[in-house]
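Structure in, sequence out. Go:
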């Protein structure tokens, strides 16, 4: 079993280019096992809560390939869905579009002409 030591930020995925698929699956499996043990849960308990078989969880922890849906169930049980934040798409506004939108915003309040005319006629 090979272990890789990397220093990286959560949003820097460049280190993954040097890892094989098998190595990445191994990392995912180690992460799941570490979370499970830290929460003092057995494989049977996690599998039951995730509605999967214990052998599926065991496969994942050994770095084997499992269905994505099962991985999501396991992450949910282990309260680790936060790892999927990197997949969230954030639409970015260009500075020009932001400036145009800012120009459209009202800068002050004012009365309409009909209100002003009505107020002028009342004594």
């Amino acid at each position: 079993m090979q272990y890789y030591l990397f220093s990286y930020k959560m949003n820097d995925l460049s280190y993954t280019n040097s890892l094989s698929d098998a190595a990445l699956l191994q990392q995912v499996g180690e992460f799941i096992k570490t979370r499970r043990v830290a929460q003092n849960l057995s494989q049977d308990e996690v599998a039951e809560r995730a509605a999967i078989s214990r052998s599926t969880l065991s496969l994942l922890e050994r770095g084997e390939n499992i269905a994505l849906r099962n991985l999501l169930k396991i992450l949910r049980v282990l309260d680790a869905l936060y790892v999927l934040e990197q997949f969230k798409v954030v639409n970015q506004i260009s500075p020009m579009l932001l400036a145009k939108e800012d120009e459209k915003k009202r800068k002050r309040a004012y009365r309409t002409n009909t209100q002003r005319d009505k107020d002028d006629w009342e004594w």
